[in-house]
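Q: How would the structure tokens look for this protein?
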Amino acid sequence: MKADAMTEAAVKAVLDQLAEVYVTRDLADLRAVFAPDPDVVMYSPGTDACVGLSEIQAKAESDWSQSEAASLTYGWTSVSAAGSVAWLATDADFTVKAGGHEKTMPARITFVLEKRGEQWLIVHAHYSFAGAL
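A: Here is the predicted structure in token form.
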């Protein structure tokens, strides 16, 4: 079911925080948007599932070590929710600068978030690139 306006805004704010993490490469901010659960999961192209916050953090550190800068911008986004769970799909662009060259890659991302107290946290993320790399 389509999320109400308040839920949609709160969930999109988490996505904006995540996008900022790609720019700042701040591990504390990365940990703040994902649930600290041992079964939080992230799928990323070319890798096995990252299960647990420590594996998600390790994947981010590995990615960051291979680039000089990165950013994530969202396009079309659909947010749905039921109770304390929200799920969304978004078209996005990853822009990465590595070796002095900048490349933008279209992506499709899905997220599942859970509301804990007043905070929405990512419990599942799946990234795929929409075109050939």
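The mean pLDDT is 93.

Helices lie at 5-24, 27-33, 53-65.

Upvote if useful.
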